Amino acid sequence: xxxxxxxxxxxxxxxxxxxxxxxxxxxxxxxxxxxxxxxxxxxxxxxxxxxxxxxxxxxxxxxxxxxxxxxxxxxxxxxxxxxxxxxxxxxxxxxxxxxxxxxxxxxxxxxxxxxxxxxxxxxxxxxxxxxxxxxxxxxxxxxxxxxxxxxxxxxxxxxxxxxxxxxxxxxxxxxxxxxxxxxxxxxxxxxxxxxxxxxxxxxxxxxxxxxxxxxxxxxxxxxxxxxxxxxxxxxxxxxxxxxxxxxxxxxxxxxxxxxxxxxxxxxxxxxxxxxxxxxxxxxxxxxxxxxxxxxxxxxxxxxxxxxxxxxxxxxxxxxxxxxxx
Length: 325
Prior knowledge:
Elements: H1 2-17, H2 19-27, H3 31-59, H4 64-80, H5 86-100, H6 104-135, H7 143-162, H8 164-180, H9 186-212, H10 214-240, H11 247-261, H12 274-283, H13 289-324
Helix pairs in contact: 2-13, 3-4, 3-6, 3-10, 3-13, 4-5, 4-13, 5-6, 6-7, 6-9, 6-10, 6-11, 8-9, 10-11, 10-13, 11-12, 12-13
């Protein structure tokens, strides 16, 4: 219901700002600049992969090609399967497990550190954006609630990685309640407890190893570069439609774009959902909705099409292998 309302809101916004005005701005776009988005987005894809790869190779033997292929499959399914990015990560885990013989504990540990660094990068960009905006006398007062949200998520990841005994207590409590319901044999419940305890121990061990590894710092640097190039894609889009936006503003607001585009639900790539939310956020910084709508449509169209073009061959090849097996 909420998603339907947001899409209706997007349609209302487009109608209120005037489709003719929007088309006029898009038609006058500087396409030489717009083409640069292909380059910045490709660099973003590359650093997204490297941030994952440098962690994975610390725990498993995997080739550069196989690692890139698994990442491409993840990107492809994240775009097309609207499931809060679970679809893409499940596909990556499945591919690495069956095609490369890498255990689920190793992949999930790598994924957890990757997401932990995602939260750190979000904080970095909020702070970097605020300082840049402050230098240009722009309002950065919405930093505090944003940092509170990110802080809560970071604490949750910290508990998952470094406090396995708490996770065991939660899981065992849930299994205990299931046991009391008498719906499953006691032997199966005990087996589930043993397997979950073993899995949590392995997961925590791999995760702590990665956190202490120098590769963790390298991966964080790659992720920051990925976000920087992604921010530049939107910065170039604004320039292409004839508006010189403050880069600090885009650095500050990009975490919202990242969260919205990687957490699609019911709508592939959250098309029609990201746009009205970001138009509203940009409007709070006094950017004309026509300009922000044109820049978002331009940037998102190029990014989504390039992501599909780059990752489609790997997804098709993997799908054909599954059908033949």
